[in-house]
Amino acid sequence: xxxxxxxxxxxxxxxxxxxxxxxxxxxxFARENQPLSDNMIAQFIHPTEPGALDDAFTEYVPCxxxxxxxxxxxxxxxxxxxxNYEYVLATFTHKGELIDRRVIAFTRVTDGVITRAxxxxxxxxxxxxxxxxxxxxxxxxxxxxxxxxxxxxxxxTIV
Length: 159
Known about the structure:
The chain is mostly beta strands. It is built from three helices and nine strands. Strands 1, 2, 3, 4, 5, 6, 7, 8 and 9 form a nine-stranded mixed β-sheet that branches.
């Protein structure tokens, strides 16, 4: 089945900022929004990679559309795969062409280290990210933490 871009955008409820995306936030979105279908994923998330669908255990849940983006759509989805969970921010033209895409928050497990990033998106479309890690025993390493920022520009580019 082929979907229109409007069908895809319609899966993302519009939300006014600020929003905080953390490790547990996806539970709210998963209760409110159904996972995206394989066809929608192929058309709008992996459109230039035919057959690049993830394994059968990977799931994409639409989270929200950022309100008041007149020149583009800014959508956030949650991607869940084995030991890797990501919040992805993607911007699209009104025709559905991808402008930019970034992972803005996540939980990843690699070689016994759990790395987490929490993101806050404010009313000015500034994204503040705090990232840190701990061993699988739960010992947090403050020397491995950092903060950084991104911003969505008026043309939809994420810098």
